[in-house]
Structures are given as structure tokens and as C-alpha cells.
Amino acid sequence: MIGGNKDLWSLSGLSLKNVELSFSANGKTFSSEFGEMLFTHKGISGPIVLKLSRGVYEQLAMGNKVWANIDLKPKLDEKMLRQRIHNELVETPKKEYQSLLKTLLPKLLILYAIKITGVDKHKQSSTLNKQEISALISFLKYFCFEITGVESIKKAIVTHGGVPIDEINSSSMMSNIVPNLYFAGEVICLDGPTGGFNMQKAFSTGYLAGFSASVI
Ligand SMILES: Cc1cc2nc3c(=O)[nH]c(=O)nc-3n(C[C@H](O)[C@H](O)[C@H](O)COP(=O)(O)OP(=O)(O)OC[C@H]3O[C@@H](n4cnc5c(N)ncnc54)[C@H](O)[C@@H]3O)c2cc1C
């Protein structure tokens, strides 16, 4: 997926694990997934991004603005996260802000977090004010940027076919329109999420189409 800005693209190569990625349009979240993703030189990719890309494509095709939100601490709600940061500040009050971030974020994300939260990296933890702590929590829970496009079909994992399923007899895979023409796999207007569903569809429909064609 394409999106973000130059600052975000500087994170290219960074992989995030155990995050919650969600997408919204018109103020409503339309999809979300927990797992692994990565930053690229022009946006984001990786398993959960691929899983959610169809919904994003559809929203963009409708002309809607789409926003990605990464929750970097999905297992902690805001209250728990605030408490965790508070504990850290009490235990190590002299720690610089940049060192505090090391306990919360992957190394490659620290400079970006400093820029987004606008807090001096040398500031001592104990002197962080309410707004600065809120800015940090906001970054950890609502790391948000606009998605402007999806990659070209050359990079797609599945194409959503061409032949509508209501034009195919599902007990033989024969065309309802052209007798003795059989369809299987990717050419059918049907797709599933990543995880083997599309290959299974290709194997099952291929077997049925081949078997049906052999017995006519
Ligand atoms: C990078 C990538 C990763 C994927 N990962 C997964 C995954 O993890 N899980 C999953 O379920 N699915 C995955 N898929 C999708 C899955 O591979 C496809 O849905 C499935 O292979 C489709 O099978 P098919 O036989 O219909 O088409 P294809 O596998 O595309 O086979 C079509 C064949 O027809 C040949 N061909 C094309 N034109 C002609 C012609 N004119 N004459 C003769 N031969 C021709 C092609 O060379 C090709 O060998 C992935 C796809 C890609 C691209």
C-alpha cells in the first residue's frame, strides 16, 4: 500500500510484530487485523497489510480518503499504558526521553517518535509534563497516516478473477453460458484472504472442472 510521507518512508525496512492495524474512511473503521507488518519505501506491506488491502482498494475506488492506524501496544488499553509509563518514570526519573522510548519501541522507530511527539530527546523522564505523556500515548495507540493507493496488479497476490460465479455451475464448474467450457482457479470472480484459501480454491475447482470435462 502506498501512503504516508517522507518521514514515514524513512522507516523503510522496519518490521513490526504484534501490532493492530486498522483502516478507516469517513470516520469509521472498516477493517482491522492483529499481526505483523512492515514499512516500505513508499508505504506499508507485510501479512496483515496484504490481508486488508482489498477493503482499502474498494474504499479508494469509491473516492473515499483512507487512513491507516497502527496500535503499537494493542494488548494495553490507554489506562494500562499510562500506568506502565508512569511506573517507568517513577523507577528511572533521570532517564532521558530517548532512553525511555527504547523500553517501548523498536530502535528504528525512536527518532520518528521523537519527531512526532515533539519532545526534546534529552529531556529527563521525571520532567515530562501531562501533554508530553499524552502525546507519547497517542503515538503508541494512534500512529495514523493517510493511504493514497494500493500497489499495481503486478504485485497482487490474488486478482478477484473475471468470470462471475453466477455464470458458473458450481457442481461441475461448467459455464452457464457456453456449454462445455469449464473454469478453475484465479479466473473465477472469487477470492479469499491470504493463508491458503486461494490455492485451495484453485486445487478444488481445478479438480472438479477436470473431472467434469473428462466425463462428458
Ligand atoms: C506472490 C504470490 C503469493 C501468493 N501466496 C498465496 C498464499 O500464500 N496462499 C494462497 O492461497 N494463495 C496465494 N497466492 C495466490 C495463488 O497462488 C493463486 O490464486 C493460484 O495459484 C491460482 O491458480 P491458477 O491455477 O488459477 O492460476 P496460476 O497459478 O496463475 O496458473 C496459471 C498458469 O497458466 C499459465 N498461462 C498463462 N497464460 C497462458 C497461455 N496463454 N497459455 C498457456 N499457459 C498460460 C501461466 O504461466 C500459469 O502457469 C499467491 C499469489 C502470488 C502471486
From TrEMBL:
Gene3D superfamilies in the record: FAD/NAD(P)-binding domain, HI0933 insert domain-like, Translation factors
This protein's record includes keyword Flavoprotein: yes
InterPro entries from the xrefs? Answer: BaiN-like, BaiN-like_dom_sf, FAD/NAD-bd_sf, RsdA/BaiN/AoA(So)-like_dom
Identify the cofactor(s): FAD
Signal peptide start-end: none
Where does the RsdA/BaiN/AoA(So)-like insert domain start and stop, copy by copy?
A: 10-158
Keyword tags: FAD, Flavoprotein
**Protein name (record):** RsdA/BaiN/AoA(So)-like insert domain-containing protein
Task: Give the originating organism.
Answer: Candidatus Woesebacteria bacterium GW2011_GWB1_38_5
